[in-house]
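Appendix B. Raw example, untouched.
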Amino acid sequence: MFIKHIMHNSRKRNAIIIGLGLTLALLTLPLTGTVGKGTWEKVDDGLEVGRFVVAHQAPTGDSTVVIVRIDPHIWRLELMAISEVGGTRGLSVEEWCDRYNLTAAINAGMFDIDHRTHIGYMKSGDHVNSSRVNSYKSVAAFSPLADGDPPFRIFDLDQTTLDAVRTEYGCMIQNLRLIKRPGKNVWTPQEKRWSEAALGEDDRGRVLFIFCRSPYSMHEFNNILLSLPIGLVCAQHLEGGPEAQLYVKSGDVEIDLVGEYESGFTEGGSNDIAWPVPNIIGVVKRTAAPGR
């Protein structure tokens, strides 16, 4: 896990002290129960970063779950794909943010061997990256077509249909379900484990970008998430292993996280490289908040 505080001029010493303070706070959290108490850091209005140390230690890494909590009334989600913006290869999540002036971004989901096409259904406005509807039971939707609808929601596709969601939202991304509404772990125990990037929704309708570099099975990881004091009601898997990424840059705060471990794929060594990915979910601040 790589967390950097970018420092400028006379603020450098204070930024170092703040960064050391956050690190010491994480190291001294009690490890009783499933997780320590955790800490939240306000990055901007409606944008916070939470860090939670897991008592059940993973085989590698610091066993820390990082969550970016986003108020979708203040921040707009952008579903971006190289099939729409152009290019012959994907970008790292940090490069996506730098090139398109995004404050934060995370993987949009798994992609096909062409390194362009999303595995499930993916639509952003008039652009359809993938028309394939598979068996995955979770679809995240934003950019509502009618005033008054929630700006963000994760739907369970055994409770509604993708066609019904499509009539209500302009952006949709279908992915593997981790947690079914209103907080049910749908994965059974397994041996496979990996670094994880996930998308969640809390009980106030806020967006959760979730990242853990340390590898857990998804059954374990779901139980960890449900034990956190974050009001999680549902979540979907975005990416695992070294391709999983999360990036935030706002003011003097920069967070750059890349995955490492995946059973049967990258089990040895340490990955410090952000792999190129073709599709991401980005965050930009609204100039005018809807309904406010």
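End of appendix B.
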